[in-house]
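Here is the promised in-class demo. Please do not try to memorize the tokens; focus on the logic of going from shape to residues.
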């Protein structure tokens, strides 16, 4: 097993791992915390990190990939997470573009990938894969605002999980899928990712950079990993970033 640093409490495992990577920590080195005080999700959102009930970790990767491939690591990491969880349960876990782990319409986990500056030379490049998973959180353990949208492995499988063992499985899956990305290319990752896509052919809505809400149907990520959607007139939209949600008819 690669080096792992275990912490009781930290601000952010991504911050810790980034600092270690700057000091030369190796590919596969990880930081695992029982609790984060300033955990972050995508789009600057707070990641609720209740003590002892979730997986909060960050793993340093130094892939043999050109800089242009680094933005695609988010999908590779998501596939690794979903594959690891799926290998441990028969429940229908899937991925919501670009980085969320879902089960039966509720979010169970997410990923935040942060890269070193891409202009520092390929030999110095690294990425931090931050992973948060709701593990042993009971049904009444979520804040009221999240109760209808979030779930946990405990809720979905009716079993308590060993967080350390779960980290080991996810860590190994991440390094395995990074190797696939390196050796077989992003097209192979994308082929497998599409099989986990919970938005495919589902009605959804998203917010454009101009603040406009658009509705359409998910068509899956394109060859570059950017989400494509079809509106009711048949027009295609390429979603580069932003908040994508399944459309709720009672909104």
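The designed amino acids, position by position:
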């Amino acid at each position: 097993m690669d080096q792992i640093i275990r912490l009781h409490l930290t601000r952010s495992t991504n911050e810790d791992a980034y600092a270690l990577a700057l000091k030369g920590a190796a590919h596969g080195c990880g930081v695992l915390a029982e609790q984060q005080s300033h955990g972050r999700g995508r789009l600057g959102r707070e990641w609720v990190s209740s003590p002892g009930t979730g997986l909060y970790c960050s793993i340093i990767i130094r892939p043999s990939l050109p800089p242009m491939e680094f933005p695609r690591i988010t999908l590779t990491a998501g596939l690794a997470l979903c594959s690891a969880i799926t290998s441990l349960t028969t429940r229908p876990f899937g991925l919501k573009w670009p980085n969320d782990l879902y089960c039966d319409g509720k979010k169970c986990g997410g990923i935040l990938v942060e890269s070193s500056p891409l202009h520092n030379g390929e030999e110095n490049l690294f990425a931090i894969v931050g992973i948060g998973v709701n593990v042993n959180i009971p049904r009444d353990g979520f804040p009221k605002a999240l109760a209808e949208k979030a779930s946990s492995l405990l809720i979905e499988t009716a079993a308590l999980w060993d967080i350390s063992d779960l980290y080991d499985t996810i860590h190994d899956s991440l390094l395995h899928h990074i190797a696939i990305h390196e050796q077989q290319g992003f097209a192979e990752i994308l082929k497998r990712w599409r099989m986990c896509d919970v938005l495919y052919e589902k009605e959804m809505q998203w917010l454009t950079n101009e603040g406009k809400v658009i509705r359409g149907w998910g068509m899956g990520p394109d060859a570059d990993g950017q989400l494509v959607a079809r509106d009711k007139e048949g027009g295609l939209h390429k979603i580069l970033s932003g908040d994508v949600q399944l459309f709720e008819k009672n909104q």
